[in-house]
Design goal:
Ferritin, single chain, mainly alpha, elongated, 173 residues
Length: 173
Amino acid sequence: MLSKSMQEALNNQVRLEASSSQAYLAMASWAEIQPGLDGVAEYFFLQSEEERVHMLKLMRFVNERGGFAVVPVLQQPNITFKSLKSMFEDFLNGEIAVSNSINELVDLALKEKDYATHNFLQWYVSEQIEEEKSARILNEKLELIGEDKSGLYLFDRDIMATRQRGGRDGHKK
């Protein structure tokens, strides 16, 4: 059985995962209308779906543990970006925020001696290590490329390979 404080914290994480999904969907839509960013658009459409899966996994866990998972109300995410670089900076900052939130959940689980939730959250800890790593690598590549059009072309073409190398559950995404 989940404590009220753990249920509330997990529902806050549900909201954060849903917000991430929406933010990545907005990034995908923006990238899709930019010339030559089809790979980036596909990357973020898949990222959005992945965050939705993370949200659903949390919701099911809350309900299975005797709590009540709440479907969150979301604010509209940023839908336009001044540049590809700024969008990827937002992506990295979002992943860092999710990691910090997961760490706070793990801390709460340990304080409450809720070892079932602690065990469940270990998957998210591992997931966030990979998510931050991928976001950092992509930001570093964009920093190296700068405004070089041929570099941006290669970045867009190769972005899905970065995602596949970051696969976590023993399978490619």
